[in-house]
Design a protein that fits this description.
alpha/beta; Arc Repressor Mutant, subunit A; Rossmann fold; Adenine-n6-DNA-methyltransferase TaqI, Chain A, domain 2; 3 domains; 9-stranded mixed β-sheet; 4-stranded antiparallel β-sheet; 22 helices
């Protein structure tokens, strides 16, 4: 169902709130709103207002309940394969046999008929041609002309990348495609051959992650000059499949399909050729993709693209990268693009980032601020603090009470944390810690002073705790070492500052405050040598930074 503008805005911005609606959760999990309301009644989700469900409880639900106690046992119609492939194929064949088939309508029938579970399992999300064309425009600017180049889309789907290649000057005889799904293959092959003059033998039905299929591609084409594709997002592989694919590719173990297709692409693209991938935004910042990002940044990066939310039903942004298979040169400039807006970043800036995070959506001036901070003398929390997780009860319905009792103790949620301290406790649990599924060492909770911070959050929210408070797993805690140059209050004030929140979001940009990210934040301890209290304006002056009118920061000149 098409969302109206107000619904779309709410849907797009839901992760900036502390709550979700039942409709939003139902949409994301592909279930009915009635199912969501039943989970609220059962205590699996926490209601925090009229049609408002705690974001924190939803995050926990996805990890601890969804797919285990709930979604696997309920006959959720939308999570099943509710279509018959043979019936669909018969329908598609009938449409393809018409004198003038409408390929756009046939593709819509295919996409709208296959089940949500199949889309999720196989990562089926088809690329708009306008987005596909961005990769070719970027190559044309470097090459001048790509008419004689050989092009391959190893996940050709409906053929949009191949059509874009032809529209941008590549001969139909020089475009090739691989598609695993037999129905999508049949549609795209007929479409490409009849409408665009692509030879039938140029389109292969097979799995590009198979060495045999890649060998077939090379036998037909030799190594190609350009490979651009939208690899399946979140395609599910077994552990055995991943190990075998990575063994064949001779690459680090990667579970995510985008990374696997990148490593496979290198096997068929010529030296000096181009690889362009459209991927989820998490590819650019999560820790599990660090090794692949390192490898990407070892090559000459031509462009990074921000496409926004391309696919219905997905809240994640789509981004892209285009690299040339030749070693990166020091001082190389990367062209970054979002819509009609274009800016440049130094490739070395991403190499210097923590975890090689590619935060290319920062403009040049903002990127220079991040680079500047890490060139100044600084320390970090890495190796300088003890961390502890909040309590995982294992059964909130059984253990959580909403009134105090003699055998109960107050416990605090992430939403109870403010920069000024903890709100009054609204929930209570039995004092016996052995009852719970996961508990940090008790001495951490009972430390004379500690920092408590929100875990499920897109910003840093810390408070100092001197009351030996206990927390649930929507909050975490840390205790700095005795020899650390900042005390807990100074560190708390620094982390809650507008500037460090901007730094945090500029580098990591996630909805969870991870220990590994906190550990990488630059802490300029020298500032605190001459002052007991933290003042943000003085801190910025010390760093040589000033705030701009639009709420970002720049190096003061």
């Amino acid at each position: 169902m098409q969302m109206n503008p107000q619904q779309q805005i709410a849907f797009d911005n839901k992760f900036t709130r502390d709550f979700l609606t039942a409709e939003e959760i139902a949409s994301e999990l592909n279930v009915s709103t009635a199912s969501v309301r039943n989970w609220v009644k059962a205590g699996d989700l926490e209601k925090v207002g009229r049609n408002k469900i705690s974001f924190e409880s939803y995050e926990k639900f996805k990890v601890s309940v969804a797919g285990k106690r709930r979604l696997n046992k309920r006959a959720n119609k939308s999570l099943k394969d509710t279509y018959d492939p043979s019936t669909l194929l018969e329908k598609i064949d009938s449409e393809l046999s018409k004198e003038s088939p409408s390929y756009t309508e046939i593709i819509d029938v295919y996409i709208n008929t296959i089940s949500d579970s199949y889309k999720n399992k196989e990562g089926v999300y088809y690329t708009p041609r306008k987005s596909a064309s961005e990769f070719f425009h970027a190559i044309n600017k470097v090459e001048g002309s790509i008419e004689e180049k050989k092009f391959l889309d190893p996940c050709s789907g409906s053929g949009e990348f191949i059509i874009s290649a032809i529209e941008n000057g590549i001969s139909p005889n020089n475009v090739f495609g691989v598609e695993l799904d037999p129905i999508a293959f049949k549609i795209s092959k007929q479409r490409l051959c009849e409408k665009y003059g692509v030879p039938e033998s140029n389109i292969i039905n097979g799995d590009f992650l198979s060495a045999q299929v890649r060998d077939e591609v090379i036998q037909k084409t030799g190594k190609v000059d350009i490979l651009a594709t939208n690899p399946p997002w979140g395609k599910k592989f077994s552990k055995v499949e991943v190990e075998e694919i990575c063994r064949q590719l001779n690459c680090v173990i990667e579970k995510e399909s985008s990374a696997l297709f990148f490593h496979a692409a290198k096997k068929v693209v010529s030296q000096g050729g181009y690889i362009g991938l459209l991927v989820q935004d998490a590819f650019f910042n999560i820790a599990s993709h660090k090794k692949t990002r390192v490898e990407i940044l070892n090559f000459n990066v031509i462009s990074f693209f921000e496409f926004g939310k391309l696919f219905n039903g997905l809240v994640t942004n789509a981004k892209g990268f285009l690299i040339q298979l030749q070693p990166a040169k020091k001082g190389s400039i990367v062209v970054c693009k979002q819509g009609e807006e274009i800016w440049e970043r130094e490739q070395d800036a991403f190499v210097a980032n923590p975890k090689n995070i590619i935060n290319f959506t920062l403009k040049s001036e903002e990127g220079e601020v991040i680079k500047h901070l890490y060139t100044l003398p600084h320390t970090t929390l890495s190796g300088n603090a003890r961390y502890g997780l909040g309590i995982v009860t294992g059964n909130n319905k059984e253990f959580i009470y909403h009134r105090p009792g003699e055998s109960l103790m107050p416990v605090y949620k992430g939403s109870d944390i403010t920069a000024n301290g903890l709100k009054e406790a609204s929930i209570f649990i039995p004092k016996s810690l052995h009852l719970y599924q996961q508990v940090a060492p008790e001495e951490l909770y009972r430390a004379p002073v500690k920092l408590i911070y929100k875990f499920i959050s897109n910003k840093l929210v810390f408070c100092v705790d001197r009351k030996q408070s206990f927390i649930l797993n929507s909050a975490n805690m840390l205790i700095v070492n005795d020899d650390f140059p900042l005390n807990h209050q100074q560190l708390c004030d620094l982390f809650n500052s507008n500037f460090l929140n901007w730094v945090y979001k500029s580098i990591f940009n996630t909805h969870k405050v991870l220990r590994s990210d906190i550990d990488q934040l630059p802490i300029h301890a020298e500032f605190f040598e001459n002052t007991e209290e933290f003042e943000e304006s003085k801190y910025l002056k010390f760093l040589g930074i000033e705030e701009t009118e639009n709420g970002t920061y720049r190096i003061k000149k």
